[in-house]
Structures are given as structure tokens and as C-alpha cells.
Amino acid sequence: MKHHYTALVLAGSLACASATSASGIMQDTDYLKKLSAEVAKNAAENSANPESSTVSFLKNEVLQKTFRSLETGFSNMFDNADANNELTIEGADSSKPSFTISTVRALGGGLSNGKLDFFQGSFLAKKNRDTVNLGVGRRFLSDDESWMYGINVFYDHEIKFGHQRASIGGEMKNAAFEITANKYVAISGWEKGLNGTQEHALGGYEIEIGGQVPYIPTARIFAKSWNWDGKKGADTKGKTYSLQLAAPIMPNMMLEAGRKDLDNAKDIDFVNVTYKFKLGEIDKVINDAPFIADEAFASTSMKAHLLDKVRRKNQIVVESGFSSSAGGV
After folding, report:
1. Same domain, 269 and 248
2. Domain housing 264
3. Which of 37, 67, 148, 311 has the greatest number of beta carbons closer than 10 A?
4. What is this structure's pTM?
5. Sequence-distant (≥ 6) Cβ neighbours of residue 174 within 8 angstroms
6. Quick check: 227 and 217 in contact, CB under 8 A?
């Protein structure tokens, strides 16, 4: 009995120490000594069943340390001087709003020899369709820094129903013009979805062109063509047109309004509100471009845009029966 009890103490102590070291909170033996004393005290207070009490105590300790580690890691992900963090609220006709929080941050040593590797992660909160998006990419600056080119790959996972998708994308941008292309591939099969119906993630593509509004460097017009490949039903395709504008009185806020023009369904109007932020520096101005410029089109370095968010469809488009939902944005 004594050896079994001692093993429980040591195993639990090591587990808690491992969970703690994952977040860098403890690196020495003081924590083990303190934990052992707490375990002994807990066992003495529950002398009728010390083993069960010890197991319960250590389990709770491990869970608490693990949650603290995850919380610290999540905070560090956003609390980075070079990270681009955004909160987006999207509203559309006949649907409840969705919320997306995202971060883009440099990997490795940052910009080197005109190239930068980056990570982009986001969480989309939408009724029954919460989705995690994880991606990495590389961006390149031209010698005069007037152009930026990039490639990226992403993995998307819809939490509730298990739909999975991957994508590969490319982009080319300067201060006045940009083009983005994304190819999506479904990597999950038929899944039991909403209301017990069978659903399948869809693959497809989108190509988007954007341009600055003359004399307004913080305003851009976008036109996108997209197509989702049907499994049993027909393809879903259409075009999206939108205007994006930085709010003059709130430079960290971006507004984007537009219309999804579906070929075989009713058009959908939408509005996105995006707020850029840094943790601990909520009031810091991130977008300080003038509202009205002296020149029709800006000609500036793209270095400051190396951590801009990749424009892509974060929600997985699915086919349910013979219809598709979540048409391209």
C-alpha cells in the first residue's frame, strides 16, 4: 500500500511539473517539494481513503496547470509586437452574424533576404459551424519593395461535424493593385451533419482582384469569381463584389460591404467590420494612412504589409443532400 501511494505521489508530481514546464512557469525542484507537501496534507485530511483523494487531487492539479499553460500560450500568440491581430464581425442577409478572431505572425527570424515566413491562425464562431483555420506561408519583396508575392497552405477543420479541408494559395500585391487565388480540396468524406443529414465538404477555387480607389489609399474595390465542386448536386458558383474602407475616425477599424452574386440562387448582401489590435495596446493606431492623398495611386513600400491577413474563405462550404451552403465570400 505504501509503495503504491508513493508511486501515485511521484507520478502525479512529475505530471504536474511537466504541465508547468510547458508554459515555463517552473524549472526547479521547489515545485515538486511544495506539491508533495500539499499531497501529504490532502491525504492526512482524507485518511479514510487517501489513495482516491490523492488521485483526485493530482488530477485537478494537472488539469489546472494544463489550462494555465494553454492560456499562457494563447495569450503569447496574440501578444507579439509584430503580430497582426484582427477581430471580424460579418453580417449577411437572412443569417446570424459570425465572429472571427485571427492572428498573423512571423516565423523564424522574420524578414531575411527579401523573404518572410509566417503563420496565420483563426477561429470562426458561427452557429453549428465553428471552424479552426491553420496556415503557413512565405512572402517575398521585390528589390525596390514595391511588390509583394506570396504562397500559402492552410488546413481547415469544422469542429462539430468533423468536416476537413486543405488549400493552397498565391498572391501578388502592390500599394494600388492585388490579385489572390486559392484552390481548396476536401479531405473528409460524407459526415453526419446538421439535423442528422449527410454532408460533404466541397473543394473549389476562387480568384480575386482588388484595386485602390483613386486618391483614397485606405479604400479598395474587390471582385471575386468562385466555384465549389458539387458531389451529387450541381456546382455552386458566382461572383462577389465589395468595397473596403478604413473608418476615418477609427483608423484601426475596416469596413467591407458587398454582394454575393450567385448564379442559381438569390443574391446575398453582406457587411464585415474588422478591428485590428495588439494586446495591451488597444488604442495604438495601426493603420495611419491618410484618408485623402495628393496622388491618385499610392506608391509605397510593401514591407509593412508582409503580415497582412491572407484573403480566403475560412468557413468550409458543404453539400447537404443536393444543396450547398456557405457560398463563397
Report:
1. yes
2. 83-325
3. 148
4. 0.74
5. 146, 147, 148, 302
6. no
Domain containing 126 — which CATH number? 2.40.160.160
Indicate whether 210 and 127 sit together in one domain.
yes
Q: What are the residues facing 207 on neighbouring strands?
A: 181, 225
Q: 10 Å Cβ neighbour count for 320?
A: 15
Which is more confidently placed, 156 or 48? Answer: 156
- Residue 195's Cβ-count burial label (10 Å; 0-12, 13-18, 19+) is exposed
Question: What are the strands of the beta sheet with 323-325, ordered from one edge?
Answer: 190-192, 198-201, 318-320, 323-325
- Write down the residue that cell numbers 472571427 correspond to: 100
Among the candidates 76, 92, 117, a domain finishes at 76
Q: How confident is the model at residue 110 (pLDDT cuts 50, 70, 90)?
A: confident
Whether residue 72 is found in the same domain as residue 7: yes
Judged against a pLDDT cut of 60, whether residue 4 lies above it is answered with no
Q: Give the cell for residue 68.
A: 494555465
Amino acid at 40: A
